[in-house]
Amino acid sequence: MAWEEWERAKAQVADQPATRMQLNQYPADQGGDGTQGDLVASQKDLQAVGTAAHDLFEDFTTYSGHARVASEAAAGGLKGEGFALGGALEHVTERWSEQTRTLLDACAHISNHLRFTKNQHAADDSYIAGAVSSIATLDEGFDDRKGH
Question: Considering the domain boundaries, does residue 7 fall inside one?
Answer without folding.
Answer: no
